């Protein structure tokens, strides 16, 4: 079952089957490293869990279903998933990436892949002339987040896909912030979707996991081989947790969206707050694109800065929160708050952060699914108390 049912049905049933041996409705957690063979090389399709494991297969089929791809792969972290894509490249290849990315992605690109001779162009990809000017015969990959972490910038997936197709360049979208409940990059022309499944897919802040979903079967097989050969697979227990998370993705993200916009509006109307970064606000510079691409669902991530521009105000706010927890990460049922410059994006050099606008007075909220009145009261008491 892939495309013939709608999304809320896909998250629960997509790619799933009852356990063939017992009829178990939920997939068993196959805690086994290896599988018996009746004769050398004769087996059930499973040989060794680094190659494939039935619980991982169940998760991977669910990923294929919700992102509408040919091949899903589950990794030991989001960064392991990104790393697997990067291993397609060789020295001399070039990558065009958005200028705002999760700090760990930027670190992987600049501290590992740049050092082995891959060239990165971190640009405002919405500037089409600039984007086109960076494409040359060595360009292999375009890598974007939309919305970005933490500035909530959008990129027009469909427009970028047209260009990458023309130039035969791979196009990967980190869909962690939006989730397929909001947007499906493969349907808009991307080749690869990536997730930090640690976030909304898992949804409960109890697992580190990553995912790739690939549109093309052949490329999917190549990435599966890379994963098998390098080993960053997700264990069966974690696969089960992410799969369980996916079954309520639509319910959770719907509430994240409802609460997210209310928190964004509250902040925008607050006298102490300067800018609010949220694609569902008409003040967002790409509000029109957000309405179209995100289908009027804007997610639970909100960033903001203070009129005072004072780092101390951001820190004071974060220390006072009572329901929001000050912690890295996002996308769990509980609300979290983060200081990008000191926490999640500290691996980006200060001058680069300043250049793209990650200021020291910036706070990023992952708005959870608690009662909105309690969340707003918490934000208010931390701002005014
Ligand atoms: O943490 P990991 O599962 O390896 O995923 C990395 C990653 C990739 N892409 C995006 C957009 C992300 O937000 C992350 C992880 N981000 C955080 C931990 C954070 O608090 O922003």
Describe this structure in a few short sentences:
36% of the residues lie in helices and 15% in strands. It is an alpha/beta fold and 385 residues long. Strand 2, helix 4 (103-113) and strand 3 (119-123) form a beta-alpha-beta unit.
Order of helices and strands: HHEHEHEHEHEEEHHHEHEHEEHEH
CATH superfamily of the largest domain: Type I PLP-dependent aspartate aminotransferase-like (Major domain)
Tell me the number of strands.
12
Number of H/I helices: 13
**What percentage of residues falls in helices of 4 or more residues?**
25-40%
Structure report:
The chain has 385 residues and is α/β, with parallel strands linked by helices. It has two domains: 7-246, Aspartate Aminotransferase, domain 2 (3-Layer(aba) Sandwich); 250-384, Aspartate Aminotransferase, domain 1 (Alpha-Beta Complex), CATH 3.90.1150. The chain contains 13 helices and twelve strands. Helix 2 (54-67) packs parallel to helix 8, helix 9 packs parallel to helix 13 (372-384) and helix 11 crosses helix 13 (372-384). The radius of gyration is 21 Å and the shape is globular. 47% of the residues are buried.
